[in-house]
Specification:
About 35% of the residues lie in helices and about 15% in strands. By secondary structure, it is α+β, with helices and mostly antiparallel strands. The strands form four sheets. The chain has a five-stranded mixed β-sheet with strand order 8-7-4-9-10, sandwiched between helices. A three-stranded antiparallel β-sheet has the order 1-2-3, with no helix packed on it. A two-stranded antiparallel sheet has the order 5-6. The radius of gyration is 23 Å and the shape is elongated.
Length: about 280
């Protein structure tokens, strides 16, 4: 289902519409006042971002505990920024948000960071046919003692026709890689990898098959890692083209962002609605 800018302007064109959405998403229309215990209804307090009980006047602040809490940025701009993230396939940089919202770079950077927090990876274990692979992101390509310098190690597992899980690692040891695979893949699933030594004991927990990239073997029937490598390609192109550079400190936020888009690529609900549901 497509959610266009026309739909967005109709639904969230004013501050009041945005605030009403948050209020009714957190508190139903039949919400019982915690003070007087009456279901008398709430009304918007003029000039403030809160609602008051019609019976006793107790005030409710719907923005508390959300990414909008204590932010002086108008809700219309927050919601528009969320819409931009939902409509983009390659991410939205802070400079782009700065231009769209007409705010400072510091504000745009914070808005982007808070929206990415909504995209934190969640979900259950993967099963069926699952591909696992590792890669390096960022830095400069320099080899020293067979290790990538100034690059961050990343591992990913992808269920074919399903979801992905991606995580930044402190190292590329077998224990780190296989530890993450075991945390996210149901034991006994079919696991497809390349010939990396990290997976040489994977047969203890999975029905493991591998392809030998060193011998120019990339596909052998259903045995391949093309799905997870396609995800790496999308992430790296997006980081290079949109963000240009991402520090290791915040890399996981960006991995969550691209994993969220990947996992909801076939969702019946618009990504914009899914993000608002997490606010």
């Amino acid at each position: 289902m497509k959610y266009t800018i026309k739909n967005f302007r109709e639904d969230f064109g004013t501050e009041e519409k945005c605030l009403n959405y948050i209020f009714y998403a957190k508190f139903s229309k039949k919400y019982v006042c915690p003070s007087c215990k009456k279901q008398a209804g709430f009304y918007k307090v003029s000039g403030r971002k809160c609602y008051a009980c019609a019976a006793c006047g107790q005030q409710i602040h719907p923005l508390a505990g959300t990414i909008f809490h204590k932010s002086p940025t108008p809700l219309t701009l927050w919601f528009y920024a969320i819409y931009l993230f939902s409509a983009s396939k390659n991410g939205v940089s802070a400079k782009e948000l700065e231009r769209h919202l007409g705010c400072t770079y510091k504000t745009a950077w914070r808005v982007g960071k808070q929206i990415r927090a909504l995209m934190e990876q969640k979900g259950g274990m993967l099963s069926g046919i699952v591909e696992a692979d590792e890669t390096y992101i960022g830095g400069t390509r320099k080899l020293k003692h067979n290790k990538m310098q100034n690059k961050t190690a990343v591992v990913g597992v992808v269920e074919r026709q399903g979801e992905a899980r991606v995580r930044k690692l402190e190292d590329m040891s077998r224990y780190s890689i296989m530890g993450y695979v075991k945390q996210n893949v149901v034991s006994g699933s079919r696991l497809m990898t390349d010939e990396a030594q990290a997976y040489y004991k994977a047969k203890k927990d999975f029905r493991h098959k591998s392809v030998k990239h060193s011998a120019n073997e990339y596909v052998r029937g259903k045995i391949h890692t093309n799905t997870v490598e396609g995800l790496w390609s999308q992430i790296k192109r997006s980081i290079d083209g949109t963000y240009h550079s991402v520090s290791p400190k915040y890399l996981q936020d960006y991995l969550d962002e691209f994993s969220f888009r990947y996992n909801h690529r076939s969702s019946a609900s618009p990504i914009f609605s899914l993000l608002l549901s997490r606010v």
